[in-house]
Task: inverse folding
């Protein structure tokens, strides 16, 4: 009899140490990624209780959130950042955890580094004290963001308690039109299902649109599962997943790899697998998408006008008004043409090679508008190196973009990269919350990296479909 | 009888009936540049408070409040435990909302902060009662699963596992997980990627 369980439930069952009478599962965690922001208090808990890290070889650390992408000389100019950096160095040394720090060329955004190093593999349970841990679901793993108390629990026991979520299959079929990217697909899904639509669910992204995506594109989709309320999202492993992992430093080697690949592929939800809910979308309905508001669901296709307050459900009107007021936008106005001040290409959503190549393709031979500050922040040192080998930095710099060192940068602005005052930023990141990019009144428009590049050059939100191939 | 048992909380209330309040708003990222959670209380809702002098957390009559009434999808976004930490250190001991984002909900559980759900109409009644009398005592009763504030009474919900942990004082999850260390070591042997994919 065939296994009717979807991938999520197979992986969950495999990692279940015990189920408590109240229904909670004690789940074994296969990979624990840590970084400088959410770990210091967790190590302090271990110290207070006289505990060790239970499985130090299943834990790996890097630094990303507070890392300056300009001057990285130590001590950092920001003494608080320096204190955090010193803390993770001390904690990792004391507790025997491998740290990929600034001196290590494997350093970068934790959700770029894990896959790049082959640490992230199908069938694993992966946690990190960061909500965008959902990124790793692109490989067919259960990957969830956790709080600092949980970080302490996983450090000390390699397990944590969780309630098993329901699983919703989010199906998208069809080919994406030119100029429509993975980022647009996930922004569209969130727009359709809402920022709270996924609460209580894991999302399985399935259908030909995802089948046709590269692994990097799949990471962009899974990365923003959390913006739709789903604590994790995943895509079933296939031959692309296997090919991506072959030869990476932490991937299984030799005969182990062949056994691993066979196991990985066996985990995929089979035809006829059961789900708690299924929703379907058509790729043809998705156009380049831009957020206009203060939640990632407040978005429109670039050719569409902003919603009118009277057209939305009464309970949503207050939120829409608050967003319009904060953003300084009018209901019913087009999003296209909205003037920007800053362009940011980077973040765990869109800072990988395919993102940079696409943005460089748009930028090549153009100039950033004179009033726009534009920065490109690669997701990891290795991405940065590869991009420079391909000459992408020269294209960006010739166009007037700043080429930076790897880190989280202006996605959350815990480092020197910040918006000022009421600046509007075209951003390839994942959150347009009030104040997210470092200025309490700063404004964020989320879009694909290619759309950010086009906006940087035009000086306002542009439709990439009209921009592509336009004369210099 | 555990000293950690949380069966009922009584305090004055404060209401913030807005939807999709994210954790960046509860505690802006610049305050995460720290290695302890000390001092986060004074920065709860810092940017919202700066921009809106009428923000409830600015109002003198609500200083000292311990029960927060909130809207839908409260605590969405970042996993930062700094968010419930800052609310707790500001003085919040329990949160009643229409719904919660999951990571935030879990973080509240880790800190022993009851995060319970109520219907929007009930929350609006509670908010009105708090507005008209900031000194009104609000009780969140986890045994009866009920909120009482003067003449306002309504039922609340919470997953059994989270409620039981608070009521029985077993929300120190680390201690419970540690007690299963032998089971964990044994279980690890059955995980394919920990055994050369031969398991």
Result:
């Amino acid at each position: 009899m065939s296994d009717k369980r979807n991938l999520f439930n197979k992986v969950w069952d495999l990692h279940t140490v015990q189920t408590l009478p109240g229904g909670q599962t004690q789940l074994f965690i296969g990979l624990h990624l840590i970084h400088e922001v959410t770990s210091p208090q967790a190590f302090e808990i271990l110290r207070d209780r006289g505990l060790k890290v239970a499985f130090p070889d299943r834990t790996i650390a890097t630094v990303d959130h507070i890392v300056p992408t300009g001057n990285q000389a130590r001590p950092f100019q920001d003494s608080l950042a320096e204190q955090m950096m010193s803390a993770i160095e001390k904690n990792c040394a004391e507790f025997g955890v491998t740290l990929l720090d600034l001196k290590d060329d494997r350093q970068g955004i934790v959700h770029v580094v894990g896959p790049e190093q082959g640490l992230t593999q199908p069938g694993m349970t992966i946690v990190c004290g960061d909500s965008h841990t959902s990124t790793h679901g692109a490989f067919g793993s259960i990957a969830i963001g956790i709080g600092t108390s949980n970080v302490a629990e996983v450090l000390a026991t390699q397990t944590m308690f969780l309630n098993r979520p329901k699983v919703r299959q989010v199906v998208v079929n069809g080919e994406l039109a030119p100029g429509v990217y993975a980022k647009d697909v996930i922004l569209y899904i969130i727009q359709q299902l809402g920022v709270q639509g996924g609460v209580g669910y894991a999302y399985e992204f399935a259908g030909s649109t995802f089948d046709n995506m590269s692994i990097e594109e799949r990471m962009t989709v899974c990365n923003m599962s959390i913006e739709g309320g789903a604590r994790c999202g995943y895509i079933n492993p296939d031959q692309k997943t296997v090919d991506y992992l072959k030869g990476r430093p932490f991937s299984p080697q030799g005969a182990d790899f062949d056994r691993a690949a066979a196991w990985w592929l066996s985990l995929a939800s089979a035809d006829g697998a059961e789900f708690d809910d299924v929703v379907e979308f058509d790729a043809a309905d998705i156009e380049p998408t831009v957020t206009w508001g203060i939640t990632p669901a407040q978005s429109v296709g670039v050719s569409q006008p902003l919603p009118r307050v009277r057209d939305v459900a009464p309970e949503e009107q207050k939120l829409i008004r608050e967003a319009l007021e904060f953003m300084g936008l009018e209901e019913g106005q087009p999003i296209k043409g909205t003037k920007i001040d800053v362009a940011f290409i980077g973040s765990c959503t869109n800072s990988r090679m395919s993102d940079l190549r696409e943005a460089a393709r748009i930028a090549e031979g153009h100039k950033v508008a004179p009033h726009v500050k534009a920065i490109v922040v690669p997701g990891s040192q290795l991405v940065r190196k590869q991009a420079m080998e391909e000459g992408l930095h020269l294209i960006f710099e010739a166009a007037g973009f700043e080429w930076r060192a790897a880190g989280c940068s202006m996605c959350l602005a815990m480092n020197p990269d910040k918006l000022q005052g009421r600046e509007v930023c075209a951003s390839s990141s994942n959150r347009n919350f009030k104040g997210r990019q470092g200025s309490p009144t700063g404004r964020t428009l989320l879009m694909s990296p290619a759309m950010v590049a086009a906006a940087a050059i035009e000086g306002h939100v542009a439709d990439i479909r009209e921009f592509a191939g336009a004369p210099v | 009888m555990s000293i950690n048992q949380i069966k009922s909380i009584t305090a004055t209330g404060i209401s913030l009936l807005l939807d999709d309040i994210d954790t960046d708003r509860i505690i802006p990222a610049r305050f995460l540049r720290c290695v302890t959670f000390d001092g986060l209380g004074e920065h709860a809702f810092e940017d919202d408070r700066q921009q809106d002098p009428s923000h409830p957390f600015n109002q003198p009559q609500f200083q000292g409040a311990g029960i927060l009434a909130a809207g839908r999808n409260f605590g969405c976004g970042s996993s930062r435990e700094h968010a419930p930490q800052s609310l707790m250190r500001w003085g919040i001991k329990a949160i009643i909302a229409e719904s919660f984002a999951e990571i935030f909900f879990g973080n509240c559980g880790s800190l022993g902060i009851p995060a319970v759900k109520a219907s929007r109409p009930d929350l609006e009644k509670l908010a009105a009662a708090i507005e008209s009398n900031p000194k009104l005592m609000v009780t969140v009763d986890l045994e009866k699963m009920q909120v009482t504030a003067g003449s306002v009474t309504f039922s609340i919900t919470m997953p059994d596992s989270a409620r039981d942990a608070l009521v029985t004082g077993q929300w120190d999850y680390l201690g419970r997980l540690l007690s299963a260390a032998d089971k964990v070591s044994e279980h690890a042997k059955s995980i394919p990627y920990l055994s050369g994919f031969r398991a």
Q: What stands out?
A: Residues 8-168 of chain B form a domain with the Aconitase; domain 4 fold (CATH 3.20.19.10). Chain B touches chain A through 63 residues (CB under 8 Å).
